[in-house]
Amino acid sequence: MFVVANMITSIAEVINIILSFYMVVIIIRALISWVNPDPYNPIVQFLYKVTEPVLHPVRRLMPVYNIGIDLSPMIVIVVIIFLRSFLVNSLIQLAHRMQ
After folding, report:
1. Centroid of chain to Cα 5
2. CA 92 to CA 70: how far, in whole Å?
């Protein structure tokens, strides 16, 4: 049973790393949006390709109205923090109970 517990712990750690990396990518994308980036730059293209599938549905649910501020990165970061604290911790606690 300890093998399954170790596997669940490892999966939780990998999920935590992926969510942390994605949160950093979203923060970088939000910072780059404050300037006028070159759309043909490979880094800018990578950031847009990686973050747009998540940010676009949030933008549809929360229109910008007339204030001109895009709050979708902040909402996605809050969801990532929730997933890290709920999902990752739940998996680690499950693994500890299985040992």
Report:
1. 25
2. 34
Contact residues for 15 (Cβ-Cβ < 8 A; gap 6+): 83, 87, 88, 91
**Where do the domains of the chain lie?**
2-98
Dihedral sign, CA of 9, 81, 53, 57?
positive
Please tell me the distance from the alpha carbon of residue 55 to that of residue 26, in angstroms, as a whole number: 9
Instruction: Give 20-66 pLDDT, tens digit per residue.
Output: 999 999 999 999 988 988 889 999 999 999 999 999 999 888 766 66
Which pair of structure tokens corresponds to residue 47?
Answer: 């950031």
The pTM of the full predicted model, rounded to 2 decimals, is: 0.86
Distance CA 55, CA 66 (A): 19
Structure-token match 């950093």, residue found: 24
Helix ranges (H only) for the chain are: 2-32, 42-61, 72-83, 89-98
